[in-house]
Amino acid sequence: MTKMRSVKNLANSPPPTPSETALSVQVPSSESSPLSLNQIRTLLDTAWGCRRSDPQECVRASRLLLEQPLDTADLVRATLYLGYGLMNQGNFNAAEPELRRALHLYVELADHQGQRDSLNVLGIVKARRGRPVEALKLFLQVRHLSVTLENVEGEANALLNIGATYSTMSDHPNALHYHFMALALSRQHALLSVERRALNNLSVSYNEMGGYDDALEAAVACLKVVQAEDDPMLDAMALRNAGCAHFGLKQFPEAQTMYLKTYVLVEQVGDQAEISSLGLLLGRVAQQQGHREKARHLFERSLKLCQKIGDEQGQTKSLLRLGELLGESGEVEDALGVFHLARALAEQGQLRDKLCEIDLALSRLYRQAGRYQEALTHIEQHLQLNGELFNAASDQRLQSLRVQFDLEQAEQERQAVQHLNAKLEETNRDLRTAQAQTAKLLKRLEQHANEDALTELPNRRAFDLALSGLLPDQQLGIVVCDIDHFKAVNDRFSHLIGDEVLRQVGALLKSQLRRRDLLARYGGEEFVLLMTDANSSIALSVCERLRRTIEEYDWPTVCPELSLTISLGAAVARLEPTTLSAQDVIQAADDALYAAKNAGRNRVEVRQIAPSAR
Fold first, then answer.
1. What is the C-alpha to C-alpha distance for residues 88 and 68, in angstroms, rounded to an integer?
2. Mean pLDDT across the chain, nearest whole number?
3. What is one GO biological process annotated to this record (predicted)?
4. Which terminus in the chain has less CB density within 10 A, N or C?
């Protein structure tokens, strides 16, 4: 029982000494005389500066400010900083009303940038409270406000937050989609810090998906991006993600090296929550390597640090790791005590996913101790919570799709109306100019609807529209092209390289065609070509030229050791209104492609078909 007492004392032990953590910010006492304007501004800057490194001081400074007579601009800043500090303490219930109050004040001030900042932090709170659908709504508003403010960096960061929210819902395809959008935007506008955050987020998503090689590649790519100014936190994030990838690959010494490098950087910045989190990661490595005493020390130190900064969620995680270690070491009673402390904190913070995890651990330990009734109670609680979480996650995914569609459609319509009204006002004396600009906008929207985002080629919709415009007796040739062994490219070189291959293949094919030919991305690794007035000889000549162009391209410039070929199937015919349609020609070209594939790939097969062939 001596060990059990030490565990209980741990939960109520005093916080680390100043030598173990960052020094506290000196904030005047609330009993002091009213602060001067300069003191108020200095204190505001102080509160903002320590919002991450010492959220407790941020909260104390903000509350002291709110006791002072402030003008509206300073009042709203202090309110926002209070919400920010409470969020970083893990006190989401208290943070949310403060952030809503700040948002209301910014609306009254007609301060769009302030509204954007408040919505952004409020979205983070919603996501961390396990309300991803509500978070998505807020981040979508942040994105649209950023566009209105012409704040490209804000828009890219909103895309990253949307992607991160999808990650919390385990909706990894959508998460990757938004992270790649942010990455493209950052590279387009040379936003190096955003590019690094996008690569970090991609690394996180790949780690969560179990794609540890891709996660490691993204983290290393982030570290290779050179900024004008050092950003130790971005370096730390990349090193941490690399460590998680090594851990997933069971490369524990490499993981430990990455985590220790991260620790040095984070300690310089003074981010106490991140220091605590790294302690847990290092503890897990030590645990995997059989160093249980070292792991226990790291878990306990993380717990003390979370207690110091008031991070209840971090305390729950630390206790959970410590309980697992004690149970693994055979200290069942101590482990039970730690798990019950963790469960009380999880209930207090409404951390239902952690409650589910803790109940499962308690059930196993009670069964190990021969206390079967208590084991049954906790396994029933685990199963009930697990079912509720599963149902909630399913509902959230459906709601998120509806929210995203509805909000984006409504915002596009609103922006289109605003844009049109502005143009009409500006060109009121010249109706023709206004009509021309409206036509240009519609053409651009039509172009986006008919363009493949990755290759910038026409998409399948555009190709189908072109087919519908053919004459009933049109002479044509249709070619279906498929990249050989494309799945192996993704598996061996990563999906990032696979995307670059698709872009390059599309560009190479397009460069070899006549102006009147239509090349489109048909789906996946397939491209389709429409040639009017083409016979078998022309089709064969064009296809051979395309095949050689891909085969002879210097693919190692895209990625070392990469080589690539394509297979092509072509069909040539004159359409007949009742006996031969364009779809019949596509099917014949597709059959020819399969013949080329079956004959060994990197080949061309051409079919000449007639109405009687149906």
1. 24
2. 84
3. negative regulation of bacterial-type flagellum-dependent cell motility
4. N
Tokens of 124: 């983070």
Does residue 553 fall inside a structural domain? yes
Whole-structure pTM over 0.70, yes or no? no
Q: Which two tokens stand for residue 460?
A: 């399948």
Q: Which amino acid is at 492?
A: R
Residue 606 is inside which H or E element, if any? Answer: strand 604-608
Residue with tokens 């020609």: 585
pLDDT at 353 over 70: yes
Expressed as residue numbers, the domain containing 528 is 460-608
CATH number at residue 580: 3.30.70.270
pLDDT tens-place string over residues 367-391: 888 888 888 888 888 788 777 766 6
- Number of structural domains found in the chain: 1
- pLDDT tens sequence across 477-511: 999 999 999 999 999 999 999 999 999 999 999 99
Beta pairing class for 526-532 and 518-523: antiparallel
Query: Do the beta carbons of residue 196 and residue 180 sit within 8 Å?
Result: no
CA atoms within 13 A on the CB side of 365: 26
Q: Which element (helix H / strand E) includes 529?
A: strand 526-532
d(CA 413, CA 422): 14
Q: How far is CA 503 from CA 40, 524, 604, in A?
A: 55, 12, 22
